[in-house]
Design a protein that fits this description.
The protein is built from eleven helices and seven strands. The chain is of the alpha/beta class. Bound molecules: nicotinamide-adenine-dinucleotide (NAD) and 2-acetamido-2-deoxy-beta-D-glucopyranose (NAG) (2 copies).
C-alpha cells in the first residue's frame, strides 16, 4: 500500500505533481480509447466468452431477467434463475426449452437473508461456482411516503439492496479465485429522486453506492479478475411501472435493455446508462439551482403527474 504521509512539504508537492501528470496522460489515453471504442460496431469488438459460465440472474422469471436469461443461454452459458414466483420461473424455463436450452430455477424470496445464503450454497453444489451474478430483481409500490406502509418500505429495502450484500457475499470468494462479474441493476430513479419512490429511489441510490464502493475495494486490493457493471435504465415497458406515461421519452423496450446489459457485461463496461442521453442530462441536476431543477422536473418533464398514473401490476406489494 503506498504511503500517504510524506516526510516534508517538498516531497509532498513533488509526488502530487507527478501523480497529476500521470493522471492527465492516462486520462487522455482513456478518453481516446473510449471514443475509439464507441465508434467500433459491437460485432468487431472482442467480447467476453461466457460459454459454460454459470450466470445467476435474480428476478429471472420477470421482464428483463427473463430476456437476459435467453440471451445468455444462446451464448451457451449455464443459466440459473432465482425468483419469488414459481410460475414466473416456469415461463422462463419453458422459453429457454423452446429453443433447446436448459435453465435451473430456484424459488427464493430475496427479502429472506437465510434463504439467500442457503440457496447460494445449493447452487454451488448443484451447478458450480457462480461466474456472473446479476442482481436484477426489484420491487416498487409507488406511493407518497404518507401512504407507504411500513412493511412495504422494509420489503423494498430488503429486496432492492440488502439482498445484494447476501448474494455477493455468497460468491465473492469464488469470483476472486476464478474471475467473475457482478452486475448491479439500479435505475435512473437511483440518480434522481422520483415521485412515489422514497423507498424505491433511495434503494436504487444505495445500489449505486454499493457498486462504486465495492468496485473501489476490489481494485484497491488487486482483485482485477472480478469485473463490475452498474446498469441504470430509464422506464422499461415490462409492466413494473404500468400506467406511467412519461412526457418526453417513451419507455424502453425490455429486449433492448436485456441486449444492452448483456453487451455491457461482455465488453466489461463499468457503467451502462440507458438511454445514453440521460447520462448527458444528469449533471444539470448539480449545476442548476434547485428551483430551476424543480421547474425542469415538474413543468417540463411532468414527472410527478406521470407517476400518479402508476397502476403497476395491480398486485399488493409483498411483505
Ligand atoms: N421496469 C422499469 O421501468 C425499470 C426501470 C429502471 C430499472 N428497473 C429495474 O430493473 C430490474 C428489472 O425490472 P423489470 O421491469 O424486469 O421487473 P419485473 O417486475 O418485470 O420483474 C422483476 C422480477 O423480480 C421478481 N421478484 C420481485 N420481488 C422478488 C423477491 N422478493 N424475491 C425474488 N424475486 C422477486 C418478480 O417476481 C419478477 O419476476 C429491477 O431491479 C427494476 O427495479 C426497472
Ligand atoms: C412449474 O413446473 C413444474 C415442473 O414442470 C410443475 O411441477 C409445477 O406445477 C409448475 N408450477 C407452476 C406454479 O406452474
Ligand atoms: C474476469 C474479467 O472479465 N476480467 C476483465 C475485467 O475487465 C478488464 C477490461 O476492462 C479485462 O482486462 C479483464 O480481463
Amino acid at each position: 500500500m503506498p504511503d500517504l504521509l510524506y516526510e516534508n512539504r517538498v516531497e509532498h508537492i513533488s509526488t502530487l505533481l507527478w501523480d497529476l501528470l500521470v493522471f492527465y496522460v492516462k486520462s487522455f489515453l482513456y478518453i481516446c480509447e473510449a471514443f475509439f471504442l464507441s465508434l467500433v460496431p459491437t460485432k468487431y469488438r472482442q467480447l467476453k466468452d461466457v460459454k459454460n459460465q454459470v450466470v445467476l440472474i435474480t428476478g429471472g422469471g420477470g421482464g428483463v431477467g427473463k430476456l437476459m436469461s435467453l440471451n445468455f443461454a444462446r451464448l451457451q452459458a449455464r443459466v440459473v434463475i432465482w425468483d419469488i414466483n414459481q410460475e414466473a420461473i416456469n415461463t422462463t424455463i419453458d422459453l429457454l426449452e423452446s429453443e433447446g436450452y436448459r435453465c435451473k430455477g430456484y424459488v427464493v424470496d430475496l427479502a429472506n437473508r437465510e434463504k439467500i445464503t442457503e440457496t447460494m450454497k445449493v447452487v454451488r453444489q448443484e451447478i458450480g461456482p457462480v461466474h456472473i451474478l446479476i442482481n436484477n430483481a426489484g420491487t416498487v409500490c409507488c406511493k407518497p411516503l404518507w401512504d407507504l406502509p411500513e412493511k412495504v418500505i422494509e420489503n423494498t429495502y430488503a429486496v432492492n439492496i440488502l439482498s445484494h450484500y447476501w448474494t455477493v457475499k455468497g460468491c465473492l470468494d469464488d469470483m476472486i479465485e476464478n474471475g467473475g462479474h457482478i452486475v448491479t441493476v439500479a435505475s435512473v430513479a437511483g440518480m434522481l429522486g422520483t415521485y412515489g419512490c422514497t423507498d424505491y429511489s433511495a434503494t436504487k441510490f444505495a445500489c449505486i453506492g454499493f457498486h462504486e464502493a465495492l468496485y473501489t475495494e476490489l481494485r484497491t486490493h488487486g482483485h482485477d479478475r472480478v469485473n463490475m457493471t452498474l446498469v441504470c435504465p430509464y422506464y422499461i415497458n415490462t409492466g413494473m411501472f404500468a400506467g406511467v406515461r412519461p412526457r418526453l421519452m417513451p419507455m424502453l423496450e425490455p429486449q433492448h435493455v436485456a441486449d444492452s446489459i448483456v453487451s455491457a457485461v461482455r465488453k466489461n463496461e463499468v457503467n451502462c446508462v440507458l438511454p445514453d442521453s440521460v447520462r448527458l442530462m444528469m449533471p444539470l441536476k448539480h449545476w442548476l439551482p434547485a428551483k430551476a431543477s424543480w421547474e425542469m422536473m415538474a413543468r417540463v418533464m411532468k414527472g410527478p403527474n406521470s407517476m400518479m398514473l402508476f397502476k403497476g401490476r395491480g398486485r399488493v406489494a409483498a411483505g
